[in-house]
Design brief:
mainly alpha, 80% helix, 0% strand
Length: 262
Amino acid sequence: VQQAQAGLNQMEQSANKTEASISNLNGALRTMSGALGVGFGAHALVSFAKDAVQSAADYEGAMKRIVFASSSMEEGQKNLAFIRAEVDKFRIPLQEATDDYGKFLAMLAGSDIAGDQVRELHDQILTIAKIKGLDAGQLSAGVMNLGKMLEAGGMDARHLRPLEMQLSGIGQYIANLMGTTVHGLAEMRNKGLLSAADPKILLEAVKRQAADLEKFLPESLTTLQSGLNEVSNAWLEFKNNLVLENKAEIIGLFDAMKEGVK
């Protein structure tokens, strides 16, 4: 009987902790809803909370991957500041850009490209992508294909062919640097003759294409999609800040819920 009573007492304490945590979180959300001039019903409140917590968790994870892929904590902070500034500069989606940059850094971790050179390369890629009107998926694929070749230390058809479609026009720059034509480059690619080519050619090709296209950047920033991206980013950051500022209460809620179902 005493053991059963102790169990009931523990369940009651867990329920009280859960109720207190929910109350704290609800208070923060209702303060926010009042500031926005909108009301949350119980279902909408729970739905918003779940979405906000997941968004913040995804963004926090993406930031940590950037730090972990950097050579030091100092470089990690530089990389975080860099990609956040790039999001504003190019008016691109915050979450996707942060995810892609972390993957790009991880792929290049074993190469001899690091620090400012990586950041400069990524800025050039974003310049080309923005002017070419690449969507988030196309940009992500282009970054990955370029990163994989730089990581491997060689060019190959499996990654070069899609890169030429994603960063349209890049093939002409690569061909010029290799002293051939686009047709000649395609023949080399199809015959598997590019594996011995210096992948640094890719760096110079991206640099030259970005420099030639940069004059079109101001116009590319005034599109409807750029405006939508900024609105989405502002909303995402609002949710992220709301969650991270109440992180202790949310973790307390999770702990209480975990204890309650044991």
